[in-house]
Design goal:
By secondary structure, the protein is mainly β. It is built from two helices and 16 strands. The strands form two sheets. A twelve-stranded antiparallel beta barrel has the order 1-4-5-7-8-9-10-11-12-13-14-16. A three-stranded antiparallel sheet has the order 3-2-15, with no helix packed on it. A hairpin with a 2-residue loop joins strand 13 and strand 14. The radius of gyration is 22 Å and the shape is globular.
Amino acid sequence: MRNHLHIPLTVVAIALPGVFALGPSGARASCNTASCPIDLSTVETGGHQAQVEHGLSLHFTYESIEQDQPCYGSNAVQFQHIRRTDHDEIETSNRNVNARALYTLSPQWSFSLTVPVVRRSHSHILGSGHLHDEGDHAEDHDDDGLDGLAEVGFESWDFTELGDVAIRGRYQSVRPESAGSDWSVSGGLGLPTGATDLRNDAGALAEPSLQPGTGGWSLLLNAGYRNHVRLPLLNGGRQDGGAPSMWTISSSLRLNTRGEADYRYGDEWLTHAGLHHSVNSSVDLLGQFVVRWRGHDDVGDTGEPIDATGGTSIYLSPGLNLKLAQGLSAYGYYQLPIFQDVNEVQLTSDSNLVFGLGYRLSL
C-alpha cells in the first residue's frame, strides 16, 4: 500500500501547480499531422462513479494546435535560419473534432468507435529541390548545396476532411465504487478512411504527412492501471482523507502499415501518468504527464524527404471536469509541451487545447 501512495503524491506535488499556472512556455510540439496526446479514459468512464452494467455514452472533443515556431532538435530557431532543399515551413493550424461512441456491454467489456474530422491549414515556402507530385521532381534531386535552396514560390492548403476512423475493444477488471484499483487492456484498428490525395487550389498535391488520412491500417494497443485513494494532502489534512482521488498510468502503441505509394507513418508510443481528484460532486481537477515518441516515416515510393519526421516530447496537461447534469459532463485540458527533441527542423506550438462534452445513457 505504501507503494501505491508514493506515486500519486509525487504526481500531485509536480502536476497540480500546473493546474493553477496556465501561462505559455516556449515548449514545442511536432509538425505534420497533429493531435493532442491525452488519455480521456477517466472522464469518459465517469471518473469515480461506479461502472454501469451497460449503456451508451457519446463524446465530442475539439482540439486546437497552432504550430508556428520552427524548432531544430530541442532549440527554437527563426524562420529559414536553417534552410532546407525541400521547403521551409511557415505555419500549420489544426482544428480537430472527434465524435466518439462508447458502448459498455458489461462492467468488464466496452467497445468504441471514433470518427475524426480534420480542419487543417498549412503554408510553406517551396524550394527548387522539391515538388510533391511524383514524377515532376525527379531531376531536381540532383542539385546539392546552395543551388537547391532557391525559393520557387509560396504554397498553402486549407481543408476540412474526414480522418482515419478507429474502432476499439476494451477489457477492464471489476473495481469497487470508490476504493481499490483496477487495470485494463484494449486493442483496435485504425481504418484508412481519410483522403490521401488532397490538392490545393493551384492543383499541388499535399505531402503525405499533411493529408487527413494515412492511407494505411493501424494496430492500436493500450494497457492501463488506476488506483482509487483518499489523499489528506488534497483535503486539508482531514484524517478520513476527504474526497476521493484517482491516479492513473497507461501506455499505448500505434503500429502503422504502408499507405499510398507505400508511404508509412512512423510508429508512435505514448505513456500517461495522471491524477483525477474530486473537489465536490460537480468539479474534478485533472492533471496528466505525457511522454510521446514517434519514429521516422518511411518514404516508400513517394520521393518525399523524411528526415524531418518523428521525435520525443513531454507534456504537462492540467485540466478540469465539470458535471453539468445527470450523465452530462464537460471537460478540458490545457497542454504544455515542456520538452521536445524533434528530428531536423519541424514546426512547434506553445500550447495545445482540448475540450470535450460527454453524455451517458444507461440502457
